[in-house]
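#onboarding

Welcome to the new folks! Below is a worked example of what a typical request in this channel looks like: someone posts a single protein sequence, and someone else replies with the predicted structure as tokens. Don't worry about understanding the tokens yet, we'll cover that in week two.

Example request:
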Amino acid sequence: MQFENENIYHIYNQGNNRQQIFFTRDNYMFFLQKIKDYILPFSDILAWCLMPNHFHLMIYVNKAKLDFINQNINRTRTLNQSLAIMLRSYTRAINLQENRTGSLFRERTKALCLTRNTELTPSYFNSEFGTVLNIDMPELNYVQVCFEYIYKNPIKAGLVNAPEDWEFTSYLDFTGIRNWQLINRKRIEEFITC
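Example response:
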């Protein structure tokens, strides 16, 4: 994955062999803390949804690379490295909790750039309504469609009947039902039509 400043990315991964990655409410909360610690320093979060066997993040990258001081040594870390550290750390904790070994997530985490059309990013998005071109129509814009897709994920999986019924999504924060302060509402308003 190569992240670039001032672009929006849809980041997602699922359990290896589609296995469960969250076993308790505490696991979901622990993963959210990891997002806060490892992703938030680099980006603004526009949307997130944690499902029993996968996760989705939509982020706006402010800085793809940051300097950190660790034990009086100045080191540079990229968002890509920080994401990898986050997933490894979470995997170690779950392996310990579940008395298991090995990979928890699929080998490759996906990160699709939603704001740039290059040879690496498709100019279309397959949705439940068919193929949507990444065009300048707010209701059909790739960013808008992906934003809504993330929130509809628990419904599509048959876990709930409405997005506000799933606790582990930023939909509750976006709509003002809850205020966990992980998303950046001001940044969302720049890209999403409500």
